Amino acid sequence: MGMLLYYFILASFSGALGLSQPICILDTADRMNLVCKNVANVFPTDMYYGNKNLQCENCDIKVFSLSTFPHENVLLSLNISHTNLQAVDESAFSHLGNLRNIYFEFNKIDRVSSKAFKGLRQVYEINLRNNEIKDLIPGFIEDLEVSYFSLSHNKIEEIPNNVFKGTLVVANLILSHNKIKNIHYDSFTGLEATEYLEIDHNELCYIPIGAFRNLKELKYLNLASNKLSKFSLGTFSGLTALYSLILANNSLETFEGDELLPMHDLNRLDLKGNRLFYLDAHLIYTSAPTLKHVSFEGNVFSCLLLKNVIRYLKAQKVKIETHSGNYDVQNINGIACIEGPVDELTTKEFFFDKAKEEAEMSVRYNSYC
Ligand SMILES: *[C@@H]1O[C@H](CO)[C@@H](O)[C@H](O)[C@H]1NC(C)=O
Ligand SMILES: *[C@@H]1O[C@H](CO)[C@@H](O)[C@H](O)[C@H]1NC(C)=O
């Protein structure tokens, strides 16, 4: 009790002077966890950090650099989240070669220097989500081997040419929820080993021909919730191993099927929530005969077209998946359609108004019985 009171007084006294001493304590409930508090720039140097998971609390580290951990150590994971962290310097992890997880989430990071993660191998996760990164610096993940790297919920506007060059492996790369408008011919150079890429919830309206040509291992590509309206022959060239292509919630008016010709193993295609008024199921299926699952609710289909598309895909044993679905108007398993003709001028508003009108008509018609 006396000790506690003493500690409390000491803590509030030094706190008032802004002199809280950095301290690291082993979590008694889980001896794998080390909690460090009040670290300002440099972690205490007079202690041994075993192969533990370190979590920083009430820390004030602005720049994470080589001198943040001045000595070599064998820490397994490092969590500096919800603090004021603003930048990661070159070779910042040179003394932390055993790290498997780096959580720098919910900070104010706006600069990750070239070669920031240099030398790290077999890292499981590096998570930089919810930061302020606007510009990606070329070489920022050079000489790194990581399974999962997230930059989601930042402010990235562009993927510059060769920005990923020199990367060893980034198996899963998450760029969701940014402001990416521009992708270039050499944006993805360096991601030859990447298998999973998410660029959903960005502002892409155009993808240059050939941009994906080096992604020979890519299995999953998520481009949902962008502003894409059309593709060229060659947009998806190189994606020979692709298994899932997610194009939901864009502004696609046409999808010919030719887009899928480069793929040898495509299993899943998601086209829901676009502005498609025409689909040629035969062209789509013959372009990707490995297809097993498609999703295309939330477009502007005539009922005649929808019935034909579904009949054809069923015959090929392709499963048609619906997620939310419109069941209160004419529909097939939630995929809405209208009797009237549709074309490229049919807006979603017009389509759903018309669908409701037709539904009301049919109610009136049927209530004479
Ligand atoms: C990292 O630390 C924060 C507290 O700052 C905590 O909320 C979060 O759960 C930790 N993350 C992991 C993966 O342990
Ligand atoms: C598309 O948008 C809808 C509504 O905003 C959302 O519920 C859904 O998750 C989105 N789909 C994808 C694949 O992002």
Automatic annotation (TrEMBL):
<keyword id="KW-0677">Repeat</keyword>
<dbReference type="InterPro" id="IPR032675">
    <property type="entry name" value="LRR_dom_sf"/>
</dbReference>
<keyword id="KW-0732">Signal</keyword>
<dbReference type="InterPro" id="IPR003591">
    <property type="entry name" value="Leu-rich_rpt_typical-subtyp"/>
</dbReference>
<dbReference type="GO" id="GO:0031012">
    <property type="term" value="C:extracellular matrix"/>
</dbReference>
<feature type="signal peptide">
    <location>
        <begin position="1"/>
        <end position="18"/>
    </location>
</feature>
<protein>
    <submittedName>
        <fullName>Uncharacterized protein</fullName>
    </submittedName>
</protein>
<dbReference type="InterPro" id="IPR001611">
    <property type="entry name" value="Leu-rich_rpt"/>
</dbReference>
<keyword id="KW-0325">Glycoprotein</keyword>
<dbReference type="GO" id="GO:0005615">
    <property type="term" value="C:extracellular space"/>
</dbReference>
<dbReference type="InterPro" id="IPR050328">
    <property type="entry name" value="Dev_Immune_Receptor"/>
</dbReference>
<keyword id="KW-0433">Leucine-rich repeat</keyword>
<dbReference type="Pfam" id="PF13855">
    <property type="entry name" value="LRR_8"/>
</dbReference>
